[in-house]
Amino acid sequence: MLSTLAATLFGLVAVANAAADCQYVLYDDDLLDLVPLGINRCHYTVLFGYAYSYKFTCTSETQLQMTFYNSAFDCEGSQSSFTYESGGEYVFDCSEEKSECGKIFGFKTPCDCTKEDGNCNFAYALSIVDDVCVYSNVFYYQQWDITCGSVSEANAVQSMYDDTVCNEFASSDIVNAGCHMNTNYTSIYGNDEVDWIVCSANIQSFSIALMVALIAAAFSM
User: Which CA distances in Å does 209 have to 2, 192, 214?
Assistant: First the structure.
């Protein structure tokens, strides 16, 4: 039984490690510069009640499709699609052996608004592929490190490097999940309070529930 349990836990670790090797597209975000977004994940923006969302899908290893959803934050409803070839407008990795994955990072302001109610000055969420070194601008390469968990533990670190393999550290920005006040936010986000979104609580609890279920299944064998 212990060997079965060990094998089960080893399998979980193997899956987690495999998930780190993700398909991604390098997307030019207005606030974050170039950022690696997860393939087949829904990314949304809400601006003064107007919502739109978009999703990238690999149609082959050399071809990428972007689907844009108007007036929706959940990638549902009216849509239009655009196709891009490798070497063109987008840099992407659609390798078939890689996984579809990403971790949520974004914000909403003011803190008590909801994207569903449309009462946010601004809100968005991106599914970012972390632990991958990608081109950022003419001076730097960047890598994201996103830690999931409770609001008190979750954070996102965007680090800049001077070399192409992200070894020669230059600088970093860290954002802790939860509602924060800063008068400097107003010029960027339109409000002095911002609720930072890092992963989400139900993702973490689902992972724990899945592990408990697998361990219980192992003990029942």
Answer: 20, 37, 9
pTM of the model: 0.80
Q: Choose the weakest-confidence range: 24-33, 36-45, 151-160, 212-221.
A: 212-221
Burial class (CB in 10 A: 0-12, 13-18, 19+), 46: buried
Note the residue count of the chain.
Answer: 221
> Domain residues for 79?
2-220
* Structure confidence at residue 58 (pLDDT): 97
Q: Do you find a cis peptide bond into 36, omega within 30 degrees of 0?
A: no
Count up the domains in the chain and report the number: 1
